[in-house]
Amino acid sequence: MAGPLAGKHIVLGVTGSIACYKALDLASKLVQAGALVDTMLTYGATRFVTPLAFRSLTHRVVVTDIFDPNSEFANEHVALARQADIVVIAPATVHCIAKLAAGLADDPLTTTVIATSAPLLVAPAMDANMFDHPATQENLAKLRGRGVIIAGPAAGRLASGLMGMGRLLETAQLLGHIAATLGRQGDLAGRTIVVSAGGTQEAIDPVRVITNHSSGKMGYALAEAARDRGARVVLVAAPTGLPDPPLVRVVRVRSAQEMAEAVFQEVKHADALIMAAAVADYRPESTAEQKIKKSSAGLSLALTRTTDILAEARGAFVKVGFAAESQDLVENARAKVRAKGLDLIVANDITDPQSGFGVDTNKVTLIDRELRAEELPVLTKYEVGQRVLDRVRELLAESGPGR
Ligand code: PMT
After folding, report:
1. Given this model, what pLDDT does residue 316 score?
2. Which member of 129, 212, 348, 362 is catalytic?
3. Torsions phi, psi for 13 (to 5 deg)
């Protein structure tokens, strides 16, 4: 397993909230991502979910009682604190947050927090009034001031029936926060990377657009991979059905022109631009103000070229393109390296069903400035992102820290 959580030692603290049931899903997804998860339940948490449920999912230690003579924790109560790569408390109740802010250590979880030097990520879950209370806000501010990462809460329907702030973040969001926290000192720390994703939409009239099959998955995976190596990431995204990746700044655009404007603005402060978007090469010469009525006659559209964003983006940044090709993959991609002045192109075979539009995997060949090609096997799009970023890191190193 090659994701950011593989082999990571995670202490998962669970405190007494109705959102405890979601912690089971988080534990399961962490294990599926290759993490080693040791769980600590407070007494309150055990009233909502059982230690057995976590043990069944994680196949590892579940600690509930600091004084249990049979527990591994009792024998060496700071061992988990020392092993942890990160301590995650999800859900964190208002009471737990107050204890953390006060530095109390009266249960296995708070004792571990005090004893560890690993980063601490706290995901609050509570009623909106509790969250808004000045005491809670002060406690959260205190924790932030100590470098604790506060993930969420989200707004929405709460268990009380009220609407407001207080929902535990969804599992996918929590996984993003955890991966980003683990990777924040990574080899792209201090770098800013602009990534584009998705297929642009060129309006024909108020109803119809010219677009393509890009789902945005490749660009989003790249953005997450860069974030998980410590980069500041700006994702310029054409319309997709994907949720915003946590801790990535997303700039939403629709047309090639909007994408061009956003990219030209963002690259002013960037170390690298990676264009994974499928940008329309042509747009209708004009957009009809009203819906075009159908008739028995055919319809011809006059099209005009869009801005070639990659070719026209200039500055002291590493420039990476993608090329989705259905024939002569390497030759066609090589021509684009020269034509667009690229440092690297990712030639994307769209004839393989495991590769290209919409799927979670991709089969690509990396081609550098000297036109040397490295063919990669079918990988997940996140892994492809990592391989592309390995090259970006090398290119940045070649050009020195001031690039
Ligand atoms: O989004 P997914 O469903 O995950 O699919 C991923 C993908 C297939 C869209 C992606 O991996 C990919 O290959 N993207 C490039 C698509 C493409 O065909 O590009 P192109 O050959 O038309 O353009 C070459 C490069 O120039 C690309 O980096 C493109 O972003 C850029 N370009 C193109 C046209 C234009 N007007 N401006 C540009 O900057």
Report:
1. 83
2. 212
3. -95, 135
Residue nearest to atom 16 of ligand 1 (CA): 278
Predicted pLDDT at 158: 84
Domains and CATH numbers, the chain: 9-182 (3.40.50.1950), 192-290+297-396 (3.40.50.10300)
Using CA atoms, how far apart are residues 147 and 141, in angstroms rounded to an integer? 10
Residue 348 Cβ < 6 Å to ligand 1: yes
What are the percentages of helix, strand and coil residues in the chain, rounded to 5? 35, 25, 40
Probe residue for ligand 1, chosen from 200, 201, 279, 384 as the CB with the greatest number of ligand atoms within 8 Å: 279
- pLDDT tens, position by position, 69-89: 666 666 566 788 999 999 999
Residue 65 has a pLDDT of 83
Identity of residue 208: R
Separation of CA 276 and ligand 1 centre (Å):
5
| Strand extents, DSSP E, 8-107 | 9-14, 36-41, 62-63, 86-92
> Residue 272's closest CA among 379, 351, 196?
196
Cβ partners under 8 Å of residue 270, min gap 6: 192, 193, 194, 234, 315, 317
